[in-house]
Amino acid sequence: MARHNNRHYAIGVFDSGLGGLTVVKELVRLLPHEDIVYFGDTARVPYGTKSKESIIRFSKENVGLLLKHKVKMIVLACNTSSSLALDVLKRTYGIPLIGVINPGAQKAVLVTKNKRIGVVATSATIYSQAYPKRIRELDRSIKVIAQACPLFVPLAEEGWFNKKVTEDIARTYLKNMIKNRIDALILGCTHYPLLKPVLRKVMGKKVFLVDSAEVVANEVKKRLVREDKLNPTHKKGYYKFLVSDRPQHFQELAKRFLGFDIKNVLRV
Amino acid sequence: MARHNNRHYAIGVFDSGLGGLTVVKELVRLLPHEDIVYFGDTARVPYGTKSKESIIRFSKENVGLLLKHKVKMIVLACNTSSSLALDVLKRTYGIPLIGVINPGAQKAVLVTKNKRIGVVATSATIYSQAYPKRIRELDRSIKVIAQACPLFVPLAEEGWFNKKVTEDIARTYLKNMIKNRIDALILGCTHYPLLKPVLRKVMGKKVFLVDSAEVVANEVKKRLVREDKLNPTHKKGYYKFLVSDRPQHFQELAKRFLGFDIKNVLRV
Most buried by CB count within 10 Å: which residue of A96, B26, B54, B149? Predict the structure, then answer.
């Protein structure tokens, strides 16, 4: 049963910063008995404006770090890393690696009726074309409308969820989506679930919002079940948070993303 | 005359990214015969959200890099570095180092009549209290109102100078400044000169806008004159641009900051 000897290991999760905590929140909800080791690369955040070579180098270093912490699977809770580094990482490491692109693309293809899907994300994710490429692999007849939204991350971090300017900015970015009558919108950045209420308001109730955090957590569960790697314990999971810069800022903002307070954020 | 043998050397300038190009623009205008070597740490941008230890480490590495390029003076064209690292750098290196805080604070103290000065900057610069501290050293009776404006940098990089949302966001951030009837506003981030028209509109014509880029260029000129280090050539200066991430993005956006196109951006 050697292949099962790491069931008690944690799920490793990394992101460029805080955003991946929306994924942790969903993992905690869906898999309450799993331990989680999270690494936020807060010294080099954001990844969304940087080059492919830099993203690959940073992502390799992040995987290397998590591998030192007894993990059985690693989640790239970062759209930019998932777009630009997942394939290289899969060729380099033996551990199961899950990115956010494929689960998001699959969900959108599943829910769209009129075959018009929108994608909002950081500049780097949009520039990489990762979502349109994957969606067209799944169904060539689907039209994809993509839009980089560089102001969404700072708006989410400011906590300006109900401000009129946030709605105005969302209307500016989403104008083309509305004009093209999309019926599914992929929130292609882990910060964006925080802006769901305003995006729902701007897009209307008929547009399905595909939340990366939710779909990737579902994918993790499916994969753990399939590979018989679910943690057999009945105890509540243990969560460890690692960052590459000052833990204080991370700790302060974490509640907004996670829904609960955290302690013991370690700088590595 | 050994102390003069580096007159022909360049002025070194570094910033976390693109913003310092507003300083280069002013240097080019004021000192057309000087050579300039600029380093933008685009792989680690922004500095404004990171810890003091990280900023000091990054800044030392940046100075080390510029010292390999025959420079006679180094300008920290980054408010965050100037706030958190200048003192340490001065103790570590023999070369003249000029930050943006002191020139900005001096100018504001000079122009204020009602002794109420406002400062807008990144979170790290505001948190460091660098401007209020320096202003109070110059004149203890001055009241300083400080405000972090995390959305200004992405707004400037989006090029949304004339959009209504930009004005709305500026009104939100500056509300307290207006209420406190400041008569001088320090633009404490090298990106902010791009937002001058909207800041002027929101604050009104009676408030003096202290532009870091202008005041630091004046300080560089004064210092070069005082130390007899002006380049004696009559040729136009030569400009070299170094970055730590993909040159393409930097090159594309540079014109917005500099007012002229650049080529030969090198990745180091």
Answer: B149
Q: Which residue has the tokens 């320090």?
A: B186
In the block, which residue shows the tokens 């007159």?
Answer: B7
CB contact under 8 A, A165 and B163: no
How far does B172 lie from chain A, in Å, by closest CA? 10
SS3 B37: strand
List Cα–Cα distances, A218 to A1, A211, B36, in angstroms: 26, 11, 53
∠ CA B151-B152-B156 to the nearest 5 degrees?
Answer: 120
pLDDT for position A252: 87
Map out the domains of chain B with their CATH numbers: 2-99+214-267 (3.40.50.1860), 101-212 (3.40.50.1860)
Q: Residue A106: exposed, middle, or buried by beta-carbon count in 10 A (0-12, 13-18, 19+)?
A: middle
Report the C-alpha gap between B53 and A249 in whole angstroms: 14
pLDDT digits (tens, 9 = 90+) for A138-181: 999 999 999 999 999 999 989 999 899 999 999 999 999 999 99
- pLDDT (tens digit, 9 = 90+) per residue, B169-221? 999 999 999 999 999 999 999 999 999 999 999 999 999 999 989 999 999 99
Instruction: Record the tokens describing residue A133, joined without a space.
Output: 């490429």
Could you say which residues from 154 to 173 on chain B have a Cβ atom under 8 Å away from some Cβ of chain A? 154-155, 157-158, 163-165, 168-169, 172
Token code pair at residue B156 = 């400037």
